[in-house]
Amino acid sequence: MEKFSYVNATSLEQVTTLLDDSRWGEVMLIAGGTDLLGELKEYIETPKTLVNLKTLPGMDGIKVDDAAGLTIGALTTITDIAKHPAIRHHYAVLAEAAGSIATPQIRNVGTLGGNLCQRPRCWYYRDEATSCLKKGGDICFAVDGLSKYHAILGGDPVYIVHPSDLAPALIALGASVKIVGPEGEKTMSLEDFFTLPAANPFRENVLQPNEIVVEVQVPPAKPNTKSFYLKAREKGAPDFALASVAAVFEMNEKTCVSASIVLGGVAPAPWRSKEAEATLTGKMIDDTVSKQAGADAVKDAQPLNDNAYKVTLTQNLVSRAAMMATS
């Protein structure tokens, strides 16, 4: 990797002054480093300065309030999220998503903010010698190349998939994200935080070069809510999702009062399926309704040469999650 200077951050104000106002890559942030260090070794990123966020006070921790809901600091580890008793009880989809990530060693150092802001794992993007569209080249090589792990929804013109497991779960829970920049702080829906390649082929979220994620806020869980995170991966060992579904249901016995269905592993951003939600909402869930919800979730899919299997896989995951809500 290239040489760089290293700064231990002492305050958010210091961090925002260190970050560049207009360009990515000169100064970069590091917390757990489970993604960034790989990019440095592969020369995908060559920053001149790394700013260590782990020295910032007060940016980790989990707070649960009956009225305000759940607040999670950006430096909170994935392990802490997966094991927190209140999250496991009231926000099961989030605990299950966190527990599915990588290995215990990675979960012990990886952070919430890092998981949300990690870069894609596309093998063309990660190849130092390949100048793909994502890195300023002319084409997305997945279109005519090897596309087994690429997007079936929302991909044009870049067919990466977003690798986060926490993002679909948090979006399904209606989470918001707090961002700090030179002009102060702002809060926005986490669903709006992510962006598709059609809007910006080079980035996966709306952060500016001088902004930083500081916390995520989740509203209180509604009564009679059930939630699940289902993740299909290629091997039994820890791996990224081939497809996943984060599902949150408000139930009245076997009738779905409301549903939130967010897909992972199939699009460049966490993909909310309003079609599947509409199919389920107000219906008594049975085998027919659940299968229709699965079909509706992927009705707009446009698979590439090697990933049509993701259509059936995703359809079945959505159907299974719906049936689980009835038990």
What does it look like?
It contains twelve helices and twelve strands. The protein has a domain at 225-324: Enolase-like, domain 1 (2-Layer Sandwich). A hairpin with a 2-residue loop joins strand 6 and strand 7 (184-189). The termini are far apart. It has helices spanning 12-18, 36-41, 78-83, 85-90, 92-99, 104-109, 112-117, 166-172, 190-193, 274-280, 287-297, 309-324, and strands spanning 5-8, 27-30, 49-52, 62-65, 69-73, 176-181, 184-189, 212-218, 225-232, 243-252, 255-264, 271-272.
Question: Looking across the biggest beta sheet, what order are the strands in?
Answer: 4-5-8-6-7
* Stretches with pLDDT under 50, minimum 5 residues: none
One letter per element, helices H and strands E, the order comes to EHEHEEEHHHHHHEEHEEEEEHHH
CATH architecture of the domain at 225-324: 2-Layer Sandwich
Distance between the termini: 52 Å
Number of strands: 12
Computed over alpha carbons, the radius of gyration is 19 Å
Please give the largest β-sheet.
5 strands, antiparallel
Gross geometry: globular
User: Looking at this structure, what is the CATH superfamily of the domain at 225-324?
Assistant: CO dehydrogenase flavoprotein, C-terminal domain
List keywords for this structure.
single chain, 327 residues, alpha+beta, Enolase-like, domain 1, five-stranded antiparallel sheet, four-stranded antiparallel sheet, 12 helices, 12 strands, 28% helix
What order do the helices and strands come in, and which of them pair?
Blueprint: E1 5-8, H1 12-18, E2 27-30, H2 36-41, E3 49-52, E4 62-65, E5 69-73, H3 78-83, H4 85-90, H5 92-99, H6 104-109, H7 112-117, H8 166-172, E6 176-181, E7 184-189, H9 190-193, E8 212-218, E9 225-232, E10 243-252, E11 255-264, E12 271-272, H10 274-280, H11 287-297, H12 309-324
Parallel strand pairs: 1-3, 2-3
Antiparallel strand pairs: 4-5, 5-8, 6-7, 6-8, 9-10, 10-11, 11-12
